[in-house]
Amino acid sequence: MRTKLLASGLLGGAILLGTACTIPSKTTVVPKSQANQMQVADIGTVVKVTGLAIEGRRTHLGQGGGAIIGAAAASPAGGTRNTAAALGVAGATIAGAVIGEAVEEYATRKRAQEITVQMNNGDTVVIVQPAPPDYAVGDKVNVIHSPGGARVALAMDF
Q1: Domains, the chain
Q2: pTM, whole model, 2 decimals?
């Protein structure tokens, strides 16, 4: 019982720590490396849009949390008194770690779009970026690019 209480406390603390580290904001945040950098914007028309997902993160938080939950769920109330019980707890700990990592990756995935743009100069480019905003076939867009990458934004004047 004491182990389950400790495990629950540790998991709760980890969840609070993980959620306290992010502050929601409606402002787009860019890396410092993009500040004061020249970027080129070329105009084009969206010709194809495909929905997809950007892979989520896999950290030790998911593994550790899953392992703690697996061990706590498999631990007998009076503690492990024999080898079979200990092996059961060990197996549940490993299974919990694997499941915890998969749950974390799934929970942190980001919805995205693969956007195919026919540029006004005749070139065709394909860019994958997080959504929203959502683009549709026929949208006039700026493809903003620099040596570090590219992104799509709605064209204000075309």
Answers
A1: 1-28+56-108 (no CATH), 31-55+110-158 (2.40.50.840)
A2: 0.60
